[in-house]
Amino acid sequence: MRYEDIRALVRLRGFRWDRVERTLGRCVTVADLRTAAARNWPRGVRGYVEGGADGELSLRRNQEAFERYGLVPRTLRDVAQVDTRTRILGHEAALPFGLAPTGYTRMMHADGEPAVARAARQSGIPYTLSTMATTSLEDLARQVPGELWFQLYALRDRGLTKELLERAEHSGYRVLMLTVDTAVTGLRVRDTHNGFTIPPQLSPSTVLDMARHPAWCLSLLRGEPITFANLAQHSRTPEGVMAFAAGQFDASVTWEDLAWLRERWSGPLVVKGMVSARDAVWAAEAGVDGVVLSNHGGRQLDRAVAPIEVLPEVRQAVGDRVELLVDSGIRRGTDIVIALALGADSVLVGRPYLYGLGAGGERGAAAAIRMLGEEVRRAMQLLGVSSIGQLREEGPALVRGSGL
Fold it and tell me: Nearest-CA neighbor of 106 among 33, 188, 45?
């Protein structure tokens, strides 16, 4: 073979001076972003993102449950044009998923929640800010106006709960998401070993491991101290705020509290953290607009059923009275497609965008969203469907469970 022929076949990739661009250029999937983020994160941060409760059986089963489903493609259909748009709680989204709330987000990257919210806005999907965010709801809405949702814990101090509601409304958050699976905090063994508790109690080995990641340490030292920004007025120190937050989780929350919220929030109201069909029916009767089937990503009750496994049963029970969203275990675009085919209106993703954030900040979060969106689009084309509506309509014929 002549030199000219070899040169025509071999195209060497040019060196990229920008470190983030270089890192993301090697990433093809969310799994690649996960690997890249793991290189940047100290052990304690990796444990916080990756860990689950107790023996982490729910954590593993969430992903295994998706893997038990197979897809049955239809062929010889025109899929030259595929439309991934859908409406999520009354608002058009470019993709059939939104970003779930996560706490401690600035631990994964110094740019934290604003970086993720900007990536979501640019991608045309909703972003949910956590009560335990490291950026206040006012600051986020000011920096990144757009389709913002606010996740709320029903706190022991009902006056504070009401205050957060009013702040979210005044700041323009359109959807309120009440998390209902945190009567107590699950035992997250990795976090306990590493001292990533509320408030933190870092072990000497954890601190030493942080020192082995100087770039991560320097980026955090350059910014404001990490704290739960929405509760910052309750203490002058980050440690005090975290101690205050630890005492606010309330095991006495009931359906009456949900009714109280429904009376005070005029926009769409969603409950997150149910896996029971009966609970979903009661939530619909209580006047909520959406239910997120979730086991908190395997971080609360270990051995809890995987949400994707109960989705068809819940859809049959609630009909079209509420929108059904699913999270927990979603890592690929095909997972999203399976959820939609089984009856979900949309899904929420959490860990995938944290991997992107850890790998490359805002650009990494945007890359995670893009990867998932491209996987959804490609899966739809290979399944022979050209719209989200068609995917839902033909869904039962396109998915098979194990052994079927």
Answer: 45
pTM: 0.94
Active site residue 296: yes
Q: How many CA atoms lie within 13 A of 264 on its CB side?
A: 19
- C-alpha torsion 318→129→53→29, nearest 10: 90
Tokens at 85, concatenated:
């748009």
Pairing relationship of beta strands 91-93 and 86-88 according to DSSP bridges: antiparallel
DSSP letter (8 states) at residue 224: P
- Residue 83 identity (one-letter amino acid): D
Q: Is the pLDDT of residue 21 over 70?
A: yes
pLDDT at residue 12 is higher than 70: no
State the Cα–Cα distance between residues 44 and 50, nearest whole angstrom. 10
Query: What region does 76 belong to: left with phi over 0, alpha with psi -120 to 50, or beta?
Result: left
Give pLDDT, residue 220: 81
Residue count (the chain):
404
Half-sphere exposure of 157 (CA within 13 A, CB side): 12
- The residue type found at 137 is L
Contacts 24+ apart (CB under 8 A), 300-305: 300/53, 300/181, 300/182, 300/185, 300/186, 300/273, 301/53, 301/58, 301/181, 301/186, 302/52, 302/53, 302/54, 302/55, 302/56, 302/57, 302/58, 302/186, 303/57, 303/58, 304/58, 304/275, 305/275
Instruction: Answer whether 268's CB lies under 8 Å from 90's CB.
Output: yes
The reported pLDDT for the residue numbered 278 is 98
Provide the sign of the torsion angle of the four alpha carbons 298, 303, 304, 310, taken in this order. positive
DSSP codes joined into one string, 116-140: HHHHHHHHT--EEE-TT-SS-HHHH
Q: Which of the residues 170, 193, 213, 296 is marked catalytic?
A: 296
Q: What is the pLDDT of residues 46-101, one digit of tens each?
A: 999 999 999 999 999 999 999 999 999 999 999 999 999 999 999 999 999 999 99
Q: Which residue type, as a one-letter code, is found at position 55? A: G
CA distance 347 to 386: 19
Query: 24-43 as b/e, with b when 16 or more CB fall inside 10 Å?
Result: beebebbebbbebbbebbbb
pLDDT at 115: 98
